[in-house]
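Checklist before submission:
- one chain only
- standard amino acids only
- sequence pasted in full

Submission:
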Amino acid sequence: MTENTAQRYCPSCGLTTDEAYCPADGVMTVIRAKLDVDATVVHEGDIIDGRYRIGGLLGRGGFGAVYSAEHTGTQQKVAVKMMLPNPAGVDEDQIRRFYREAQVTASLRHPNTVRVFDVGQVDSGALYITMELLHGPTLEQAFRAESAKGGVLGEARAIEVALPILRSLHEAHKKGLVHRDLKPANIMLSRMSEEEDDDDDDGEIVVKVLDFGIAKPQDSSL
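Returned file contents:
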């Protein structure tokens, strides 16, 4: 099969190949295929890639849709992020960014950074990332809730939120990584248990930095 007709390529180095794993760097290759929106739509009870049973939709944005899920073997609760297709066709740069999010975030170990467990491609050709399942509002939602009550985030509370964010970013910066999309919507105030009441201010909260999808190494032009 020639380079122009090969159906697979490496999302890391861009090498076109017939192999399931890149012969240059060992990364799992992906199928080069134009996807429609239906390719990324999954429903409760669907099993993707033979090991993740889908729960419900958690959120949807311009880049992807996030679902709750359970590993069929370990029964671990996870979040599955499905990359939405580009209407213009195969966007290899978008796919590289998606894989970079998985690679970058999986290399980070700080407790204030969301953990990534897996990355793959389903039979439809859609790409996915699995990560820890978090419960709680984003910082943006917390701001809006305070504003609706006529209040603001107090100084002490702001410091409690800001310091964990800085600790998460410090680890990333030591690895030469720049987040580039730090905003309240990408900060989650995660409750330790999903059973806690949304309005319970006394429950333990862990600040989590999300979405390293456009993070980049300091020496990269991506």
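Reviewer check: The two ends are 29 Å apart (CA to CA).
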